[in-house]
């Protein structure tokens, strides 16, 4: 048995040594590729600079050629148009970068190639900066989603632990059922708020022109301490064949009500000005959606024609114990 264990340990050691060797090989190849990338980047900048210089010299030579051709034309000095063209060519020659003196701060003259190289490098750095900024924004969005998921799971875990503790206590059945339902409703409320935060962060993000920024209804005196407004009725007026202009999420299978996740900028729902991202749709033209699945809600909303009366309820996603904004942009990117 000891011999078998020694053999297995030797096999594991061999596998680990091979893995280490392959990892070192990958790191070396990565370093070579990075060095080659830096070299190619420098070559690209030089090539762009040389091309820019050659284009400017070609333009200058063409101007000089046209000026010489104009001077050798018969009767050129008596033609007012020819004189005007000659002056224009001279002005363009004077404004050409080849004929201009560009000085450094120390007073030394900077060559045209050096200047073009600096412009090319600046353009390259700007493009790289834009790409890195987009990558950073994408990573920040992923981090926000991970934070939101962790915060929701932490609250749901706390609620489930309280339910387990409730099962171990001796109390009357009706009191236990009441407390159980209360804990279950709090868990569902936190789930609801987590989905709303995700929808509103999408509306306030950098998704382009396809969505409008998520707004919030004015503060209502009847709003409860948990941020729940009273249900309200909103009439969306539509033209013939026009859609609602909303996207929905949630449903019975997800444990959350039907929520407005997106408002199209030119849609009928956005034009009415009374619907907000995060609104829970309770009914549509009198048809109850409180226990509807996502597909059932989609079918009901698509089957309604003309103006639509929606019963909606807003639940604020921000809790009073919110420490920091999960979606705070620490870099100020837009």
Automatic annotation (TrEMBL):
- Point out the coiled-coil segments of this chain: 115-142
> What domain of life does the native source organism fall in?
Eukaryota
Q: Which GO terms label this protein's molecular function in UniProt?
A: transmembrane transporter binding
InterPro entries, A to Z? GOPC, PDZ, PDZ_sf
What are the entry keywords?
Coiled coil
GO cellular component terms, alphabetically, are: Golgi apparatus; membrane; trans-Golgi network transport vesicle
The record places domain PDZ at: 233-316
Q: Where is this region: Disordered?
A: 200-226
Q: Does the keyword Coiled coil apply?
A: yes
Can you cite a GO biological process for this protein?
negative regulation of protein localization to cell surface
**PANTHER family from the xrefs?**
GOLGI-ASSOCIATED PDZ AND COILED-COIL MOTIF-CONTAINING (PTHR16528), GOLGI-ASSOCIATED PDZ AND COILED-COIL MOTIF-CONTAINING PROTEIN (PTHR16528:SF2)
Q: What is this protein called?
A: Golgi-associated PDZ and coiled-coil motif-containing protein
């Amino acid at each position: 048995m000891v011999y078998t264990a020694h053999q297995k340990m030797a096999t594991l050691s061999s596998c680990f040594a091979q893995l280490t060797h392959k990892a070192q090989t990958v790191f070396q190849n990565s370093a070579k590729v990075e060095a080659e990338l830096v070299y190619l980047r420098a070559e690209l900048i030089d090539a762009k600079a040389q091309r820019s210089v050659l284009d400017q010299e070609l333009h200058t030579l063409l101007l000089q050629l046209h000026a010489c051709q104009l001077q050798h034309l018969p009767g050129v000095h008596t033609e007012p148009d020819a004189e005007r063209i000659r002056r224009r060519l001279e002005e363009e020659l004077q404004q050409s970068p080849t004929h201009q003196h560009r000085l450094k701060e120390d007073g030394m003259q900077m060559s045209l190639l050096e200047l073009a190289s600096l412009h090319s490098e600046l353009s390259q750095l700007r493009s790289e900066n834009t790409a890195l900024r987009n990558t950073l924004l994408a990573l920040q969005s992923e981090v926000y989603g991970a934070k939101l998921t962790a915060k929701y799971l932490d609250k749901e875990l706390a609620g489930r632990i309280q339910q387990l503790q409730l099962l171990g206590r001796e109390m009357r059945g009706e009191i236990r059922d009441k407390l159980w339902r209360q804990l279950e409703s709090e868990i569902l409320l936190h789930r609801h708020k987590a989905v709303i935060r995700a929808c509103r962060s999408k509306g306030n993000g950098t998704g382009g022109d396809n969505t409008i920024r998520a707004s919030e209804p004015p503060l209502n005196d009847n709003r409860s301490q948990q941020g729940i407004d009273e249900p309200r009725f909103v009439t969306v007026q539509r033209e013939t064949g026009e859609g609602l202009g909303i996207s929905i999420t949630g449903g019975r299978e997800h444990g959350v009500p039907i929520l407005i996740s997106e408002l199209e900028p030119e849609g009928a729902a956005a034009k009415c000005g009374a619907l907000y991202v995060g609104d829970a749709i309770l009914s549509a033209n009198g048809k109850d959606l409180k226990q509807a699945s996502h597909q059932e809600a989609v079918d009901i909303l698509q089957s309604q024609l003309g103006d639509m009366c929606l019963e909606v309820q807003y639940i604020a996603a921000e809790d009073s114990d919110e420490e920091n904004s999960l979606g705070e942009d620490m870099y100020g990117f837009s």
